[in-house]
């Protein structure tokens, strides 16, 4: 009687862990995080040791102390008797204020110039090209110095102010303009305007913009607008010419074709690089320190000079710009998702 001897098939040997790509990838990531953490810990420890050696206090307790310095422009009430935290808030609001206006104006200017570069009119097309090639290739600090010198050095005194429009005057003190005024008794007084009047050596009443703010806003707008123009032009050219031909066949006018057909499709190309320009404009606003506008960096520098808290001041500046950049990126990503074409 024959006996069949069953022989078990040999099991394949399990490969060593370092040959497993998944485990190896996890190990590399853990190692990288450990190295970065150790490097940061070394920097923090080294910084604290050096601060202690030089008898420099660390921490953010200085924010509760009296600032004892004035700020030329503020969107909120401020006096030298306020704290450093209040002064820092003033600088933050000033930065957000000029950045928000700059983003809106640069978008409008860049869109107009980008479309003008595609105009069938030779003169309009060439003027837009000259604008783009000129302001895109001049460093922004030089442009800021130019506009600041225009207002501070070339503009006349208030008594000889230039009147651009009725009630809109330009002098070496900045811009003044009428603003709506309200009366608690008569609602129709909301339609009335408080007009600036010359009294003594300056204007009173109405609204006013300092030369520093005007120079910074114009510089950021004109410089960033030149890049936005090229982004818009590229986005429009990315739309198939057949779309414009189909719109023309339907009887749409050129302005309608651009507004209703071309630009909505071009947004999927325009929005991503536009996000980078918005981030650059916000970060470039830190150059305001060069022309004396009291932005976040300028006030932080004054604070660091008075308190010696350089590390904390720089950390606060970095944290604020990081937070602003992340918020702009988040908003633009949501908008990009909203205008993206749905693939069928």
Per DSSP E runs of 2 or more residues, the count of β-strands stands at: 8
- The N- to C-terminal Cα distance equals 71 Å
Count every helix, treating DSSP H or I runs of 4 or more residues as helices.
9
Q: What structural class do the secondary elements suggest?
A: alpha+beta
Query: What's the story with the biggest beta sheet?
Result: 4 strands, antiparallel
Radius of gyration, CA atoms, in whole angstroms: 29 Å
Note the run of SSEs as H and E: HHHHEEEEEEEEHHHHH
Strand fraction equals 5-15%
* Mean pLDDT value: 82
Helix content: 55-70%
Strand order of the largest sheet: 1-2-3-8
Low-confidence stretches: none
Shape call: flat
Please name the defining characteristics of this protein:
344 residues; alpha+beta; four-stranded antiparallel beta sheet; flat
Characterization of the model:
- By secondary structure, the chain is α+β, with helices and mostly antiparallel strands.
- 60% of the residues lie in helices and 7% in strands.
- It has nine helices and eight strands.
- The protein has helices spanning 21-53, 84-116, 122-136, 140-154, 211-238, 241-249, 254-284, 296-307, 310-339; strands spanning 162-165, 168-171, 174-177, 179-180, 193-194, 197-199, 202-204, 207-209.
- The strands form three sheets. A four-stranded antiparallel sheet has the order 1-2-3-8. Strands 4-5 form a two-stranded antiparallel sheet. A two-stranded antiparallel ribbon has the order 6-7.
- Strand 2 and strand 3 form a beta hairpin.
- The longest helix is centred in the N-terminal third of the chain and has 33 residues, at 21-53.
- The radius of gyration is 29 Å and the shape is flat.
- It starts with 20 loop residues before the first helix and ends in a 5-residue tail after the last helix.
- The mean pLDDT is 82.
